[in-house]
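To the wet lab folks,

You asked to see what we're planning to order before we commit. Fair enough. Below is the target structure as tokens, and below that is the sequence we designed to fit it. If anything looks off to you, flag it before the synthesis order goes out.
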């Protein structure tokens, strides 16, 4: 008959040895984590971030030269609304800005599927690598369609 107390001692010794081995091995192993947010992570080429809307392209038919672009709304009295129609999350609503109908993005609802990027016939919505959307006030994630200080994307963070 074996000594049960001796077996318990052996088990403990093995457990402690295993722990020590693992601890020492990790001293020489590269960390699996990164120093985010101090170091930006490297993102995949196909990463889908926050869609960026460029009001200056929205509903504008360009004839190859920006000086010959004209607004569809001024001709047919309506916006194309394709982005809002195709958004599976209902994150885009069409609102009126300066007499023109424009998409308003709600990034509380957006699931970053990029369907609006695919659907927009004017390339007015493009993909970006923006993924940091943590805010204190969720209302700020509803981006009104108006030009920013550069006169283009309305939904920069
Ligand atoms: S990325 Fe997808 S969910 Fe987000 S606004 Fe575009 S279509 Fe809607
Ligand atoms: S699909 Fe493109 S052009 Fe049409 S309303 Fe949306 S952003 Fe504007």
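Sequence we intend to order:
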């Amino acid at each position: 008959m074996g000594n049960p107390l001796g077996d318990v001692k052996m088990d403990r010794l093995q457990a402690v040895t295993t722990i020590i081995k693992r601890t020492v091995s990790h001293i020489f192993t590269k960390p699996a984590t990164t120093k985010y947010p101090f170091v930006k992570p490297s993102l995949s080429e196909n990463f889908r971030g926050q869609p960026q809307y460029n009001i200056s392209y929205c509903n504008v038919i360009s004839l190859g030269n920006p000086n010959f672009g004209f607004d569809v709304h001024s001709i047919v009295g309506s916006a194309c609304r394709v982005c809002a129609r195709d958004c599976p999350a209902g994150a885009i609503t069409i609102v009126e800005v300066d007499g023109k109908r424009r998409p308003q993005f709600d990034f509380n609802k957006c699931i970053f599927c990029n369907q609006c990027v695919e659907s927009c016939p004017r390339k007015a919505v493009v993909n970006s690598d923006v993924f940091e959307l943590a805010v204190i006030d969720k209302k700020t994630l509803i981006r009104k369609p108006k030009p920013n200080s550069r006169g283009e994307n309305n939904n920069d963070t």
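Structural context that might help your review: Residues 34 and 91 are 32 Å apart (CA to CA). The longest helix spans residues 4-27.

Thanks,
Computational group
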